[in-house]
Amino acid sequence: MDVGFWHQLDNGRIQCDLCPRFCQLTEGQRGLCFVRARSGDKMVLTTYGRSSGFCIDPIEKKPLNHFYPGTPVLSFGTAGCNLTCKFCQNWDISKSRQMDTVANRAEPELIAMAAKQTSSHSVAYTYNDPVIFLEYAIDTALACREQGIKSVAVTAGYITEKGAEKFFPVMDAANVDLKAFSEAFYSKLAGGHLQPVLEILEYIKKETSVWLELSTLLIPGQNDSEPELRDMTQWVVDRLGPDVPMHFSAFHPAWKMGQTPPTSQKTLAKARQIALESGVRYAYTGNIADSVCESSYCHSCGELLIERVRYQLGRWHLDEDGCCKRCSTPCAGVFAEKPGDWGAKRVQVNMSSG
């Protein structure tokens, strides 16, 4: 299908305007993302209607801790990515150049119907980055909206403002991967730039109604220093506000950083503490089980609000209005009157059978 977000250059190339890479393509050439390609004098999305697979996950796995906790989310992605992270934890999908990776076919309406039939509360565009299959994600989100299903973007936020203005208004929640807080990290290890991501984060928070949470994969010796974490968390408080939850996740050796050691629980806990000291009200750790650091607490009185153990919810101390039962302080987020009961299970979905 012909897609937007491109224009013709004087030299005969066409430029993709969807992400800050601004790939300039000749006939038959693909962008770095691999899935957006030139065909004649137009840009096409080669993976529209094609996915690498569908699963129902707990919403906490995205991770989103303040968006309908305990509910199931139908998750899918395609192939390719517009960043080149050497530490990618989903490299078999995001770095794939094989079209059989996206052998599952599903039109937007079928995905929305599958979400409804499986009692999924939302659909997540994840595994690789939905920015590169924006048109497919938007059409699916609109189909989901007609069925009363929410949409969740799991993204690195590497998108132009023009693209963001089309993409985020149809999303209900987003977890944005803020990979580090240094240009050196982005350019050396992710193949991108920091500033465009910061600008998009401010756009999401200030110009949309999307519920926003942030994730940072902490890599030993690369983005886990105390000064960088203090700068990052202070920026979040100052520019996005104290109510934006932050998730600090453990790195496991993968892709081109297979010799880098995994992140320790001590490092994760320290990052969480730094965030709290900076004024972040909701800070979490992930990829290593720790019920204390995975649970939510009232920022006013310290009461345990939502107990979590590896995506499984325990004690729930929010009232029907999403406020602390002890002191009545509101907990930032989007909550139902009662928590969901999906638990930690993961279920494969065969879309061909609807």
Element string (H = helix, E = strand): EEEEEEEEEHEHEHEHEHHEHEHEHEEEE
Q: How much is the average pLDDT? A: 94
Biggest sheet layout: 9 strands, mixed
CATH class of the largest domain: Alpha Beta
Q: Which residue ranges are poorly predicted, with pLDDT under 50 across at least 5 consecutive positions?
A: none
The CATH superfamily of the largest domain turns out to be Aldolase class I
- Briefly note the structural class of the backbone: alpha/beta
Helix content: 25-40%
Overall, the morphology is globular
| Spatial gap, N to C terminus | 24 Å
CATH topology of the largest domain: TIM Barrel
Total E-strand runs: 20
How much is the radius of gyration in Å? 20 Å
β-strand amount? 15-25%
Write down the domain tally: 2
The CATH architecture assignment of the largest domain turns out to be Alpha-Beta Barrel
Total helical elements: 9
Q: Going across the major beta sheet, what is the strand order?
A: 16-15-14-13-12-11-9-8-20
